[in-house]
Structures are given as C-alpha cells and as structure tokens.
Amino acid sequence: MIKKAVRMKLYPGLKEEYAKRHNQLWPEMKKMLKDHGAKSYSIFFDPETDYLFGYLEIEDEERWAQTANTEINRKWWDFMADVMETNPDNSPVTVDLEQVFEL
Fold first, then answer.
1. Where are the domains of the chain?
2. Where would you find the membrane-spanning parts of this chain (predicted)?
C-alpha cells in the first residue's frame, strides 16, 4: 500500500460548500477512484489557514496518475474550481507532502 498526502487551498468561507459537495460525491466519481486503486481517501481542513490536507492509500502510482485523464475527474475539477485554488486546467493546486513519521 502506498501512502500519499497532499495540501490544497480552499477559498475563504467555503468550507461548508466544499464539504457538502464531497458528502454528495457522484457515484461515478467514487467508482473511478476505486477503479484506479484508491483504498482510502480522507480530506481534513485547517480553519486557521483554509488549507486542505488530503491523505490517500493507493495500490499503484502509475494507475493512480491515470485518474487525471478520466472524463469524470475533469468534470469534478470543473465543478470544484469555484471553491479552491486551481491550475489553468481546473485541477487543484496541490503540494505533495513528505511523510516524516509513522507509529
């Protein structure tokens, strides 16, 4: 199992909207994530900075990287672009985080 962590930035005041959209995650998006090897995916929010922290457990890096090329993922990025910092293609601006400890 591969553990991944990323940081993203939510626009101020949009935590409730962000959470609402994720609580209603489209079934086809859930299926795509699982089909691409996501075993676990959690997102946490820091209210002091509006940063999001995503933690994933995946099976394979190459398989996971293919999620960016799926139609449903691009549709999701477009849907989420108004609540968080994004790149020109509407993908979220992410910073990969390095694991420094595990118990």
1. 2-96
2. none
Question: Which CATH number fits the domain 2-96, given the four candidates 2.60.120.560, 3.30.70.100, 3.40.50.2000, 3.60.15.10?
Answer: 3.30.70.100
| Dist. CA 36–CA 58, nearest whole Å | 8
Strands (E), the chain: 2-9, 38-46, 51-58, 95-96
| Catalytic site positions | 22
Tell me the pLDDT of the chain (103 aa) as tens digits.
999 999 999 999 999 999 999 999 999 999 999 999 999 999 999 999 999 999 999 999 999 999 999 999 999 999 999 999 999 999 999 999 999 999 9
Q: How far apart are CA 17 and CA 23, in angstroms?
A: 10
Report d(CA 31, CA 27) in Å as an integer. 6
